[in-house]
Write a structure and sequence with these properties.
CATH topology: TIM Barrel
Oligomer: single chain
Distance between the termini: 35 Å
Number of domains: 1
CATH superfamily: Aldolase class I
Bound molecules: iron/sulfur cluster
Strand content: 5-15%
């Protein structure tokens, strides 16, 4: 589809046939299984100042934390004991060294048998290489918006080209690479979103994350309207149709925006859910946006709820590691 067609499908027409088509594409390319990835938000320190995000460095209202390696490993072990085969280690974009992470990545892989995904923001090529050498399998770095003017307005201390250079570096180093966008940023247009979908198609990443913007009162975007659920699902569905073999999560932000958001996302292209294994003590402080769906959920309870929902939908938890579909293996890499 070209930009005009995508913009038209985003802004008008019955969404049901679009969602049904995306669901059929998901079934054909990714099967019926839903991959579970355990997320551990191990630090909320961030050196950047994105206008939409509660972790921004100028937000003095949040209590900063960084989990110790033992705490991170404990959370990963809890995920492995729950049968989850991927641990996602996520933090703000810290300037601090990555030293403690290197042995931890190896331990999670060797001792727990889990694949490791990282989401740590922009790093140098040498740092990415060191993380890959330490054993990390995957890396998530969303471009957030492909609209350069909007990018500069929302991420004043990031460089648009450098962001895409980072994504290219990750791919060239052999990471299974994930990227994606935010839907509903103040000032975003339907054509911007159509551009995001085209950029995703061009990048052909292993994973795509489409999240709605949720306004955070402790940021410069306080009081602006949140992203629209239906628009988020339209972007998700069109991204699935245009990039059929990517893994796509029903994100926590979609689940936060609507209590049935996970089921709705799974019905229009998503095939991944990321239960939160961050210790409950720290969760309220990883406040990118308020009201996060997983803030109080015990992981075992949320997994039980996920299983119930999947059963109702005739879906099941996918076996194996759920590597990118172009990485033909089913063992930790
Ligand atoms: S979006 Fe990422 S880089 Fe920007 S402030 Fe939030 S955590 Fe930091």
């Amino acid at each position: 589809m070209n930009k005009e067609t995508l913009a038209r499908k985003l802004s008008s027409g019955d969404c049901l046939p679009l969602f049904q088509m995306a669901d059929a594409v998901r079934l054909r390319y990714c099967g019926n299984g839903v991959h579970l990835r355990a997320i551990v938000e191990f630090s909320n320190y961030c050196s950047k100042n994105c206008l939409y995000c509660g972790l921004r460095r100028d937000n003095k209202k949040i209590k900063r934390y960084r989990m110790s390696p033992a705490e991170i490993f404990g959370a990963a072990r809890q995920a492995a004991q729950a049968g989850i085969k991927t641990v996602v280690l996520q933090s703000g974009e810290e300037k601090a060294g990555l030293g403690e992470l290197f042995p931890l990545i190896g331990r999670i892989k060797k001792e727990l048998g889990c694949a490791v995904t990282l989401s740590l923001g922009e790093k140098t090529a040498a740092e990415y290489r060191a993380l890959k050498d330490a054993g990390a399998d995957r890396y998530l770095l969303k471009f957030e918006t492909s609209d350069e003017k909007l990018f500069r307005a929302c991420k004043p201390d990031s460089d648009y080209s450098a962001r895409f250079d980072c994504i290219e570096t990750l791919v060239s180093l052999g990471f299974q690479t994930g990227t994606g966008n935010i839907v509903g940023l103040p000032g975003q247009t339907v054509r911007s979103l159509a551009g995001d979908i085209l950029r995703l198609k061009e990048l052909a990443p292993d994973m795509i994350s489409v999240t709605p913007f949720i306004s955070n009162p402790d940021t410069p975007f306080a009081g602006t309207p949140c992203g629209d659920l239906e628009m988020t699902l339209r972007v998700l569905a069109l991204s699935r149709i245009e990039t059929p073999d990517a893994h796509m999560p029903a994100t926590t932000a979609i689940r936060t925006l609507h209590k049935e958001g996970a089921g709705k996302a799974l019905a229009c292209g998503a095939n991944v859910i990321m239960p939160n294994f961050t210790p409950i003590l720290y969760r309220p402080h990883y406040s990118i946006y308020p009201g996060k769906e997983s803030i109080i959920g015990d992981p075992s309870v949320s997994i039980r709820d996920i299983l119930k929902m999947l059963e109702k939908m005739g879906r099941k938890v996918a076996p194996g590691y759920g590597h990118g579909r172009r990485h033909h293996t089913d063992s930790p890499l």
